[in-house]
Every structure is written in C-alpha cells, then in structure tokens.
C-alpha cells in the first residue's frame, strides 16, 4: 500500500523536485520542506524551514506516514567542511529520530556512491573491485563521504531503536537527461576522471522512481541500496574501459556491452526497481 502523505525534505532540489512531482502524479499527498522560499514548488503543503531545526521538522512531520529525506549539501566542495558534515548528519538524525519517535514506519534517505569514500578521495586510490556493491571496502578522506557513511549508520540505529524501515539509496551522479548528455561528452574527453565511480550515473526520472519503489515495496529494517543507469556514461564497452583505465582493479564477473559497474541486484530484488533511462538512447552513436 502506498503511503497517503509523505514528507519530502530538500523538495526544491534536483531529486526533490522530480520525486515530489512523481509522488503527486501517483496520488500521494506531499508535504514539502524547503530551506529556499521557492514559489515554484507544487505540493499539498509547503513549509520553509531548516531540516536541522527540531521545531521545523516537528511541524513538517505532522500528519505524514512516510518520509523522504533529500535535504543536504550535496558535495564536498559545496560548503565548508564543518557545514557540509553538520548539515548532512544533523538533518538526517533530526528527521529520522523524530520520525521514529512519532511512530512513522517508513523512510527513504539519500546516501551516495560516495559513502565508500573512494570517488572523492584525494589519494591515488581505486575501488577494491568491480562491480561496486554495498559491501565494498571504504576508504574515506573527505567530510561529504563521511556524512553519507554516518547517515547510513543513523538509518541502522533508527531502524533498531524505533522499528522504522529505512532505505538508504546510494545514488551515483543524478541529473536530467540534458545534463547527462553534457556529462557523457565530457567523460569521453577524460575517461579516467570517472573511473572511481565506475562511469556510473542515473537519470532524475529513475532516481524518483527508485524513491517511490522504496516507499511501496515490501521490505523491513535498514537497507543500503546501490543504484545505476542501465549502462555506463561512456560509449565504448565496459570491459574495454576497465582494461584501459583500471587495469589493477579486480573484476568479479564477465562484463558484456556497456553494462554498469554498479551491482544493482539489491535494487532489483528488494525494491523491484530497474532503471529505464539511458543517456545513450538519444545519441547518434547509440
Ligand atoms: N544529484 C546527485 O548527483 C547526487 C548523487 C548522490 C547523492 N545525492 C544526494 O541526494 C540528495 C539530493 O541531492 P540533489 O542533487 O537533489 O541536491 P540539490 O542541492 O539540488 O538539493 C538539495 C536541497 O536541499 C536543500 N537543503 C540544504 N540544506 C538544507 C537544510 N539544512 N534544510 C532544508 N533543506 C536544505 C537545498 O536548498 C536544496 O534545495 C542529497 O542528499 C545529495 O547528497 C545527490
């Protein structure tokens, strides 16, 4: 059964807008919490407030039966280290713990592919193996990645303490189809720059659908789920990319075509989610 009313934090953001729109289109009432007073947000209830503020979140949680927490500073370099870490970790604790105390039973939070630390690491590191799954060893040397790892631990605590089901979705880079075409073109010029993320990406429409599936699928506890588009951002075959740009990385299965280097079996098996949108669909070389 879909929840009747959902709180979406960070509703004015990229994933927040796409998610809010999709939930409304599926007949779910949405309370939007936004720190920017944005007149464009379409939702049943719009609250302007800070997700780290206990009073703002208490008000936003009134009458909702599930939570989608997307508010965050979404990059290491988008703020001072203290602000990035504090905003991300405090808002997640605030939203999830208050949801738990109120008896809300389902939450979805935005984790990131960066939760394993390698993509933003400033040392010369690479993933321990491909495809990247949720058990891959961490190597964290930045505050954004650390905040996402901490958020996943908060999800576990809240599930254990209050019995809230929390899905932490490990998004790769998520953008509109148009922005992804630009990202893809840039990646072709410097393939090594995206090696640590396994050349992964996800279309905004798929990100919103994954959130929806997390709200309605049958599962329980705290789960971490990796997501990816159905292919890589690159035109050439995945095996060729790995041979050329990641020769030292162990490859744990036979790679075919442009298959992604993110293991999305949990998304498929637990959430019933498969990404639909490829950046290559509308390209002449597709
Ligand atoms: N887009 C991506 O490539 C990507 C990849 C991995 C993970 N994520 C995660 O997904 C989530 C959404 O990312 P996005 O790409 O939509 O980012 P975004 O910056 O477009 O949206 C985030 C929103 O959160 C709001 N916000 C920031 N601090 C806030 C606070 N204290 N209280 C209330 N709102 C606050 C911002 O104003 C913004 O509207 C974030 O948690 C981000 O870390 C995004």
In brief:
With 286 residues, the protein is of the alpha/beta class. It has helices spanning 14-25, 54-60, 81-101, 143-162, 177-189, 204-216, 238-245, 265-271; strands spanning 5-9, 29-34, 45-48, 66-69, 106-112, 129-130, 165-171, 174-175, 202-203, 222-226, 250-251. The protein is built from 8 helices and 11 strands.
Number of strands: 11
What do the pLDDT scores average to?
A: 97
Low-pLDDT ranges:
none
The CATH class designation of one domain is Alpha Beta
Structural class: alpha/beta
Q: Catalogue the ligands.
A: nicotinamide-adenine-dinucleotide
Describe what you observe in this structure.
The chain is an alpha/beta fold and 286 residues long. The protein has a domain at 5-123 and 132-175 and 202-228 and 262-271: NAD(P)-binding Rossmann-like Domain (Rossmann fold). It has 8 helices and 11 strands. It has helices at residues 14-25, 54-60, 81-101, 143-162, 177-189, 204-216, 238-245, 265-271; strands at residues 5-9, 29-34, 45-48, 66-69, 106-112, 129-130, 165-171, 174-175, 202-203, 222-226, 250-251. It has a 7-stranded parallel beta sheet, with helices on both faces. The chain has a two-stranded parallel ribbon with strand order 6-11. Strands 8-9 form a two-stranded parallel sheet. Helix 1 packs across helix 6 (204-216). It starts with a strand and ends in a 15-residue tail after the last helix. The relative contact order is 0.14. The structure holds nicotinamide-adenine-dinucleotide.
């Amino acid at each position: 059964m879909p929840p009747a009313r959902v709180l979406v934090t960070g509703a004015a953001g990229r994933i927040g807008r796409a998610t809010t729109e999709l939930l409304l289109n599926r007949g779910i009432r949405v309370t939007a919490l936004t720190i920017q007073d944005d007149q464009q947000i379409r939702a049943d209830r719009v609250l302007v407030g800070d997700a780290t503020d206990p009073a703002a979140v208490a008000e936003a949680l009134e009458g909702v039966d599930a939570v989608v927490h997307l508010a965050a500073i979404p990059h290491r370099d988008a703020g001072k280290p203290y602000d990035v870490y504090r905003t991300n970790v405090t808002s997640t604790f605030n939203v999830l713990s208050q949801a738990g105390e109120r008896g809300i039973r389902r939450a979805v939070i935005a984790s990131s592919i960066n939760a394993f630390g390698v993509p933003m690491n400033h040392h010369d590191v690479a993933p321990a193996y491909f495809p990247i799954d949720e058990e891959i060893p961490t190597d964290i040397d930045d505050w954004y990645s650390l905040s996402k790892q901490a958020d996943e631990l908060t999800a576990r605590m809240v599930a254990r303490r209050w019995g809230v089901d929390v899905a932490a979705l490990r998004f790769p880079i998520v953008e509109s189809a148009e922005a992804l075409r630009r990202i893809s073109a840039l990646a072709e010029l410097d393939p090594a720059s995206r090696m640590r993320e396994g050349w992964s990406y996800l279309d905004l429409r798929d990100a919103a659908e994954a959130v929806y599936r997390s709200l309605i699928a049958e599962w329980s506890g705290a789960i971490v789920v990796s997501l990816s588009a159905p292919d890589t951002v690159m035109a050439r075959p995945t095996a060729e990319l790995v041979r050329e740009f990641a020769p030292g990385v162990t490859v744990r299965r036979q790679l075919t075509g442009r298959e992604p280097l993110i293991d999305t079996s949990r998304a498929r098996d637990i959430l019933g989610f498969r990404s639909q949108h490829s950046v290559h669909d509308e390209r002449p070389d597709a």
